[in-house]
Amino acid sequence: DRLIFFSHESHPEWSLFTDQSAILDHPDLARKQDVRQQVQRARGIRRRAGQWLSIVIFVVMVALVGLFMARHTLVRIAADRVPENLEGKLGTLAFEQIRLGAGFLDDADLKRDLTAIFAPLEQALPKHAYSYTLYLQDDASINAFALPGGIIVVHTGLILAARTPEEVAGVLAHELAHVTQRHGIRGMIGGTGRFVVLQAVLGDIAGLSGALIASSDLLIR
């Protein structure tokens, strides 16, 4: 309905057209009633086409805005559909990559002390499918991080800087929250396409699982 066609009975072999709608306002087209009626029909068709186009654009914009605003909710729902065994596999894959380029301590005394600090925190959690494993990384920075599935890595710099066991416990509690709230998985899902997220929300996590495994290195960046 973008083009306007003209024909005349005296020249049936001719057909003229234009995309300039302003021609419908030409006074010559209002002189004959039948032509005037055709002009009114043409205007009605173009007006309805414009209305439908506006409706379609509005619906698409609302859908896009709604999808953007609901992104965090969709990511959380998608994360809840990721099986715990896949989550653990992703954490293990990331940890193996970290292990290749970093030194880890196998100090029995330090591990025992760290486990003693961690035990009350783990016991306070509701029943869950995670199996937590603590590692000591030989790194002077004051830091710790958690990977999906329950792997928690504590830097030796944090142990040396802590003045009390409670300070270490506070950091461990923070890392526990990353695991239980599935922040690592959510971050990875947030980096996938919206279509993959919607598929997962609707119950099909095959595409999401493949995307997560392919991007497991994002967990260590």
What's the number of extended β-strand segments?
A: 6
Strand content: 5-15%
Tally of helical runs: 9
Strand order of the largest sheet: 3-4-6-5
Q: Per the principal axes of the C-alpha atoms, what is the gross shape?
A: rod-shaped
Describe the sheet with the most strands: 4 strands, mixed
Structural class: alpha+beta
Question: Would you identify the regions where 5 or more consecutive residues have pLDDT less than 50?
Answer: none
The SSE string, one letter per element, is: EEHHHEHEEEHHHHH
Global mean pLDDT: 81
What is the first-to-last residue Cα distance?
53 Å
Radius of gyration: 32 Å
Helix share, percent: 55-70%
Would you spell out the secondary-structure blueprint of this structure?
Layout: E1 4-8, E2 11-18, H1 33-69, H2 71-80, H3 84-100, E3 104-105, H4 108-124, E4 133-137, E5 144-147, E6 151-155, H5 156-161, H6 165-180, H7 183-190, H8 194-201, H9 206-214
Parallel strand pairs: 4-6
Antiparallel strand pairs: 1-2, 3-4, 5-6
Helix pairs in contact: 1-2, 2-7, 2-8, 4-6, 8-9
Overview of the structural elements:
- The protein has 221 residues and is α+β, with helices and mostly antiparallel strands.
- It is built from 9 helices and 6 strands, in the order ββαααβαβββααααα.
- The strands form 2 sheets. It has a 4-stranded mixed beta sheet. A two-stranded antiparallel ribbon has the order 1-2.
- β5 (144-147) and β6 form a beta hairpin.
- α2 crosses α8 and α4 (108-124) crosses α6 (165-180).
- The radius of gyration is 32 Å and the shape is rod-shaped.
- The model has no long low-confidence stretch (mean pLDDT 81).
